[in-house]
Amino acid sequence: xxxxxxxxxxxxxxxxxxxxxxxxxxxxxxxxxxxxxxxxxxxxxxxxxxxxxxxxxxxxxxxxxxxxxxxxxxxxxxxxxxxxxxxxxxxxxxxxxxxxxxxxxxxxxxxxxxxxxxxxxxxxxxxxxxxxxxxxxxxxxxxxxxxxxxxxxxxxxxxxxxxxxxxxxxxxxxxxxxxxxxxxxxx
Length: 187
Hints:
It is a single chain. It is rod-shaped and about 115 Å long. Helix content is 37%, strand content 21%. It contains four helices and eight strands, in the order αβββαβαββββα. Mean pLDDT is 81; it is low at 123-133. By secondary structure, it is an alpha+beta fold. Helix 2 packs antiparallel against helix 4. Strands 1, 2, 3, 4, 5, 6, 7 and 8 form an eight-stranded mixed beta sheet that branches.
């Protein structure tokens, strides 16, 4: 049987359409696979990014109910004070410096105030520095342990109080003087 010209044209058209469909399907598979690979790379990047990834340089705040003796182990103190313009100034002080040791000793021997006294004095309570009503940043003391754990106190230098969580302490010595001594820059 001989194929006629018309039958060969029909058969050629069918083959061309079939080839075209195969090419379209292959292109779709390649594009979908490429998109999937892009999503996999994005997921792998997100998994290895610093979000959710702990670093040996991360700091961890200890719970508010720890024993104050823990600050004896501090490697250094970070003291944050607002300047006269309200900008935050931070000081890093080695725990080996006598002024830092004086601060540690004063807090370790400080008298804890009961909750009623804390509220009647209007002291801010919290384990981190808080903004005061006028928008200024409250001073803070952060004791950084060699284990990269921190113990943070909000301080009220006018009233001589250090607060952490719902607890407050009043050192026997003047807290403002102690902080000033620790933040004096050498000349």
